[in-house]
Structures are given as C-alpha cells and as structure tokens.
Amino acid sequence: MEKHKHGERMKKERLARKIEFLENPHKRGDIPPDQLLSMIPVKQGNTFLDLGAGTGYLTIPAAKTSGGPVYALDVDPDMLEVIQSKAKKHNLMNVRTLNGRIDDIPLPGDSVDIAIASLVLHEIDPLSKSLQQIRQVLKPEGYFVCVELEKREEDNNHHPRIAAEDMEQEMVKEGFRVVKKLKPTDKVYILLAQK
C-alpha cells in the first residue's frame, strides 16, 4: 500500500514538473498565444487542430478565438486530462481531446481549417510522414502554422532544432505553399502555409 502511494506521488510530481516546463514562457519562445493567433487569418467557427497540444497553451485561446471545434492532439493522456480540466474551468464546450500521434492523426481528411504545430515538429522523425498527415486533414486552402526555435551553431544533440529554411523546404516538398514567414524574435520562427 505504501509503495502504491509513493508511486502515485512520484507520478503527480512528474506531471507537475512537465506542466511547469510546458507552460514556461521562455520554453514557448516568448510568444503569447493571443499574439500568435492574431497572426493567423482566423474566422469565426474555424476548426482548429493543436498538434502536440501539451497543456492546452494554444488550445484554450484558440477555442475562445474561433468558437468552432478545437482538437487537442497529444500522445500523453495526462496532458489531455489537463486540457479537459482547463476547458471545463473556462466553460469551453468546443474543445475535443484526441489521444494520438502527429504521424497518424485520428481525424478525417479535409476536416480542419487551421492546424498549429508549436515547438513540436523538431521532435518528430521522419518529419515527412507527419507533414503528409497534417496536409491530409486540412481542408483545401486550410492553413498550417509551424512555430519552431531556430537552429543555431551552438545547439547540441540534446536540443534538436530544425532551421527555418530546412523546415520550409520540407513543407514545400510535401505540397504546402508557404505564404508568410515571420521571425518575432531572434530565437523563434513562424511559417504560415496553405494546403
């Protein structure tokens, strides 16, 4: 019994550390969600997909902005519970959580107006399959927003990064049309693309 309590306490502590890390503004690239969403042509009722949603850092503001369905995709069921709790707290009925991976998105084709991948694609290998999946679920002319930390010479293997030029090449190769490139800080880039 004592061993079980210790295991549960350790799990809660790990979850708390993960939440703290994911919601740290410095980890997020210092771009507040509302600022990021203002850079996207959001229409009332748009369907969003937050890829690698984590704690709902973008899911919750997107749900408030769009009013349409907002899908939060993550591989970690604990993160999805955090998102559901936040949605309930904010009285948001349009948030839907999806347990899954970016390279196998459990949504039908042509069902999403805007997909956002914020600080997650650098962790995916191979990138091409995930980009194909994102393109598949987007509606024609749908938007894909990629937010990543810029690769620098001093980066080591412990913190994988993808340079903006390389990410753009990968996106174009998979059929996206990059319509806007933004560099809100010297550390962060945003690529806005259409299907």
UniProtKB/TrEMBL annotation:
SUPFAM superfamilies: S-adenosyl-L-methionine-dependent methyltransferases. It holds the Pfam family Methyltransf_31. Keywords: Methyltransferase, Transferase. Residues 44-158 form the Methyltransferase domain. It comes from the Bacteria. GO terms for molecular function: methyltransferase activity. Signal peptide: none annotated. GO terms for biological process: methylation. This is Methyltransferase domain-containing protein.
